[in-house]
Amino acid sequence: MRYAVFLIPLFLITLTTHAQESLSKDVDYAYLEKLIAACKTNYPRVKMYEARVNIAENGIKKAKLSYFDIFSFSYLYSPNNNNRSVSPDLLSGYQFGFFANIGSILQKPNQVKQAKSEFKAAEYDKQAFDLNMEAEVKKRYFTYMQKVAVLRIRSSSILDINDAVTNARHRFEKGEETLQNYNQALIVQSDYSQNIVNAEGEVLVAKSSLEEIIGQKLEDIK
Fold it and tell me: What transmembrane ranges does the database entry give (predicted)?
């Protein structure tokens, strides 16, 4: 029964700390926009989609310029030869020809239309990726801030728990507390310490995950 009485303040400490914490106060949306901007600048897949859009845009220009391939120009030079007595050429001098490929004329509009469709498709792919990328940056940022908040809560709680365990040890040394209850208090302290180690690891993992997508250390983004 005395052990239960001892544990109640520990749980009250944790519950009170949770009640005072709010993740929203830790979120910096201006800083989050900087993270998204850094991702757009650094993340390789962003550059890949930009390159695809540029390639598709160049495809439109190439398709339009290919209209000139429809037409061809040629000339033939026949020199005058007054000494020729048999079947003299009816035409002499330069002969010019201008030709148009009818099949190409019919195909070019569809080729330009297809190039424009490919350009729009590349743009839509990039827009979809940008939206997904922004959502992923936000998700990783919020996860990171959550892990930081949890670590702060547990770090704050362990200080009070350490004080409670110190008090329990003094009471045990005075004979006012049983060995069993004192050992239980040490177990609670050990569990909380392990939780802090776990929370620190989760913070590092979340930070690394966020830095992976933005391509920079968080400390470098002010």
Answer: none
